[in-house]
Amino acid sequence: MTTSTQESWGFLHPECHGQNALLFFSWDLAKTIEQQFQLHAGSPLSVQLQEAQKAVDRLLKQYVQIQANPTAFEGQSITLHLEESEEAPGEAVLALETSPHLESLILQVQADERARSTLN
Predict the structure, then answer these.
(1) DSSP for residue 97
(2) Is residue 33 within 8 Å of residue 58, measured between CB atoms?
(3) Which helix (H) or strand (E) holds 58?
(4) How many angstroms separate the CA atoms of 30 and 25, rounded?
(5) In what helix (H) or strand (E) does residue 113 lie, and over which residues does it extend?
(6) Cα Rg for the chain, rounded, in angstroms?
(7) Which has the closest alpha carbon to 25: 71, 81, 73, 75?
(8) Could you read off the pLDDT of 54-85 as tens digits, one per residue?
(9) With 0-12 CB in 10 A as exposed, 13-18 as middle and 19+ as buried, what is 57?
(10) How far apart are CA 94 and CA 46, in angstroms?
(11) What's the whole-model pTM score?
(12) What are phi and psi of 30, to 5 degrees?
């Protein structure tokens, strides 16, 4: 079975609302960042970071527009920046600074999902 690129985005899934939207968003967020760094691989790191930030901002707006979970996404933010790697000093790693409300909701729904999969 094949799926189109559009079908693989969580925000297009019919069950992307309420708590489910937080799981779909987590998946879409990782995919968005990875995709932007691949698309701009030949560009300087600063450009890659800037393009990834724009894409993350668009993704967050998409979740607000479809009203996937208004109390979770409206007025929230995610800022990308580079930090020095603790494991490899001198190397940069991507860090996400997520607004506290959204971060706590995402962490909670991920913990719930892990607990649910452990029980099954």
Answers:
(1) E
(2) no
(3) helix 45-65
(4) 9
(5) helix 100-119
(6) 16
(7) 73
(8) 999 999 999 999 999 999 999 999 999 999 88
(9) middle
(10) 11
(11) 0.87
(12) -60, -45
CB 33 within 8 A of CB 82: no
Q: Is 43 helix (H, G, I), strand (E, B) or coil?
A: coil
Amino acid at position 75, single letter: G
Q: How many CB atoms lie under 10 A from the CB of residue 36? A: 20
In this prediction, residue 120 has a pLDDT band, given cuts at 50, 70 and 90, of low
Helix (H, G, I), strand (E, B) or coil at 47: helix
Q: Among all chains, which residue has been given the structure tokens 């999902």? A: 113
Q: In one letter, which amino acid is 13?
A: H
Joined together, the tokens standing for residue 81 give 């920046």
Taking CA atoms, 24 is separated from 74, 86, 103, in Å, by 16, 29, 14
